[in-house]
Design brief:
This protein folds into 3 domains: about 1-65; about 145-260 and about 310-475, 3-Layer(aba) Sandwich (Rossmann fold), CATH 3.40.50.1110; about 480-615, Sandwich (Jelly Rolls), CATH 2.60.120.260. The protein is about 35% helix and about 20% strand. It contains 15 helices and 20 strands. It has helices at about 1-25, 30-80, 85-90, 160, 170, 185-195, 215-225, 245, 260-270, 275-285, 290-295, 330-355, 380-385, 395-415, 440-460, and strands spanning about 100-105, 110, 115-120, 130, 150-155, 200-205, 235-240, 310, 315, 360-365, 390, 395, 420, 485-490, 515, 525-545, 550-560, 565-570, 585-600, 610-615. Strands 14, 15, 16, 17, 18, 19 and 20 form a 7-stranded antiparallel beta sheet that branches. A 5-stranded parallel beta sheet has the order 6-5-7-10-13, sandwiched between helices. A hairpin with a 6-residue loop joins strand 17 (about 550-560) and strand 18 (about 565-570). About 40% of the residues are buried.
Length: about 625
């Protein structure tokens, strides 16, 4: 009996299990649905949540890095304002990120409008900015030429631009720089308006030169840009920048691939490491304050090319000690002739383009230090001891330049264009002419400007030259006659450090002559003795500040300190801003003979005299 009951229980359990099995077969999701939340929780814990944490951590790091970079960028911007660049760009510090140059595919590169082209204020000059067209000129230029303007363009490279000393010569020459008023273009404008005025016209000479430019750039830039401004006359002052290009004696040589922009662009399009590095460095420099701060505002476009490193103004040797592919003298001569012939054809094309547009023009060949036979000034003796650009690719630069000049001169004779050769112009000058291997001092620039102005006056304006146009005794044009003179009379200074001799220093600086308040018995004038009689044609005055400029003033001259003749009558409303302080510049139509010079303020409401510099030149 008990055994049977036990069996019944067992069968009952089996029946229950069987029923359960049948139930699971008929509804298989019943149990798995119950377990699904646990599986989902496991997936979340095992994959989604860690991925979310990694993503969140990455976003957090990205935000932190962005904040750090933003902080560094903000600090760099603040730091730039604390450097000299803050003074250079007081109104728009973003301009500090711009290079001097920007690539222009159809004529290589050009200046950036509004960029500061001259930082050097050692000579008292103010900062100088490229105008609206990217020219070295403080005046904007309109596309439509005003009816009362006679427009002249000076084209060329760094010598025409007025660069000063570069490379290893820069420190040796005391960082000598040419300010705008000492450029060939500005001096030409002053000379022509004084000695060959055009009735009803203002003669404007614009400096359209760009450092590093060769004839290929002048041709392409004229066709693509300058012709749109309708110049009445073009003067080209070139030659030296051809030397590194024509000296590259390789079979695959291409003149139009030797430009600055094309050298960098080839690397970038080659997708190589230097090209990528150049592109990224240029991009970061021109788009971030941080990179600008690191590079101290330098022009990276001039510095990044790994193959042809070009210093602003003149290209250096491509690779130290690199020799041409050809080894025989005959083959090298053929390649050199080919290169020079290519440049000559570009000069002829430049002439043809100007001639076809009906634009009169002068093509002038600049001097080259190693070709010049002048007696060396003490400064130039230092240059002679430097490596400089005496050779390109092992070829003497003076010989190459002589060949180039001969071929261009032959072309000018055949094609009939106006060519002037300045390569030997300074052979009889003992004063300081060269600041390095091709750039000129202010005195040398004046002589070039005067000779070019004489050519324009005689051959293009049809006027005869007179005695005042003569450039005999070239050395005398370099002298600031007041700097070597002495003060005969000046009212007592208002402080011991403000002595009258300060205004005869040659260039304006922080030191000045400032008189005490004058009494009615004291003469309101300054008298300078130049030591002997000289012909004078140029005057430069710089006052202490705006408040010290008289409304009216006179400068008189005398040969005997008894009889005085008027030289300049000036008004305070005609001051210029070429220096950091108000100044006045005068070029006479004809030179006057003088030993004594008298400056007289005519404004009784300002009973003081305050001058930073007083300079006179032949």
């Amino acid at each position: 009996m008990n055994t049977d009951k036990t069996k019944e229980k067992v069968h009952s359990v089996e029946a229950i299990n069987l029923a359960g099995d049948i139930k699971n077969e008929s509804n298989p999701h019943q149990v798995s649905d119950a377990l699904q939340p646990k599986k989902k929780a496991g997936i979340v814990r095992g994959f989604v949540w860690p991925a979310f944490r990694v993503l969140s951590y990455g976003v957090f790091l990205a935000i932190v890095v962005a904040l750090i970079l933003w902080g560094l960028e903000t600090l760099a911007k603040y730091g730039l304002r604390r450097t000299y660049l803050g003074a250079v760009y007081p109104d728009d510090i973003t301009m500090a990120r711009s290079d001097f140059n920007r690539p222009v595919s159809h004529y290589d590169y050009d200046f950036v409008p509004g960029v500061c082209l001259e930082y050097n204020i050692l000579k008292g000059n103010s900062y100088e900015y490229a105008n609206n067209a990217g020219l070295r000129d403080p005046r904007d230029i309109s596309r439509e030429k005003p009816p009362d303007e006679y427009r002249i363009f000076l084209t060329g490279g760094s010598t025409a631009y007025g660069l000063g000393a570069i490379g290893e010569a820069a420190s040796a020459m005391g960082w000598y720089a040419i300010e705008y008023r000492e450029t060939i273009s500005h001096m030409m404008e002053m000379i022509l308006n004084a000695t060959a005025p055009i009735p009803g016209k203002n003669i404007r000479v614009y400096n359209t030169a760009v450092w590093g430019y060769a004839y290929q750039h002048n041709l392409m830039r004229y066709l693509a840009k300058l012709r749109r401004y309708n110049p009445d006359l073009v003067v080209s002052f070139d030659g030296a920048n051809e030397l590194p290009a024509v000296s590259k004696l390789t079979e695959d040589w291409d003149y139009f691939r030797e430009g600055q922009f094309n050298n960098i662009l080839r690397d970038i399009y080659a997708y190589n490491r230097p090209g990528l590095a150049s592109y990224l460095t240029l991009w970061f420099k021109n788009n971030t304050f941080l990179m600008t701060y690191i590079w101290a505002g330098r022009d990276l476009f001039q510095e990044l090319n790994p193959e042809v490193r070009q210093h602003p103004g003149v290209a250096e040797d491509v690779k130290a000690g690199k020799k041409a592919v050809s080894t025989s003298v005959e083959e090298r001569s053929k390649l050199l002739d080919r290169n020079i012939a290519t440049v000559v054809r570009i000069v002829e094309n430049y002439h043809s383009a100007l001639q076809n547009d009906g634009v009169p023009h002068i093509l002038a060949l600049q001097p080259w230090f190693y070709s010049c036979k002048k007696p060396l000034h003490e400064k130039e003796k230092i240059l002679a001891g430097m490596t400089g650009y005496r050779e390109y690719f092992g070829i003497p630069s003076d010989r190459v330049y002589k060949l180039l000049i001969d071929k261009i001169s032959e072309s000018a004779g055949n094609k009939g264009y106006f060519l002037v050769d300045f390569s030997d112009y300074f052979d009889d000058v003992s004063e300081w002419v060269f600041t390095d291997w091709c750039h000129l001092t202010a005195g040398a620039n004046y002589l070039v400007a005067k000779e070019l102005s004489n050519l324009i006056k005689e051959h293009f304006f049809g006027r005869p030259l007179n005695e005042g146009d003569s450039t005999k005794n070239k050395n005398e044009f370099f002298w600031d006659l007041a700097a070597s003179g002495s003060i005969i009379y000046a009212p007592p200074p208002d402080a011991p450090q403000n002595q009258p001799k300060n205004m005869l220093s040659g260039y304006p600086g922080e030191e000045l002559y400032s008189s005490r308040d004058l009494t009615h018995e004291e003469r309101a004038e300054v008298v300078v003795d130049l030591g002997e009689v000289h012909p004078l044609s140029r005057l430069r005055l710089v006052w202490g500040d705006e408040d010290s400029v008289p409304n009216q003033w006179d400068v008189e001259v005398s040969t005997d300190e008894k009889t005085w003749h008027p030289f300049v009558h000036g008004s305070g409303y005609k001051t210029d801003n070429y220096s950091r302080w108000p100044g006045f510049e005068y070029y006479a139509a004809e030179p006057v003979q003088a030993r004594y010079l008298k400056y007289k303020p005519l404004d009784d409401s300002k009973p003081v005299i305050a001058l930073r510099s007083l300079s006179v030149f032949r």
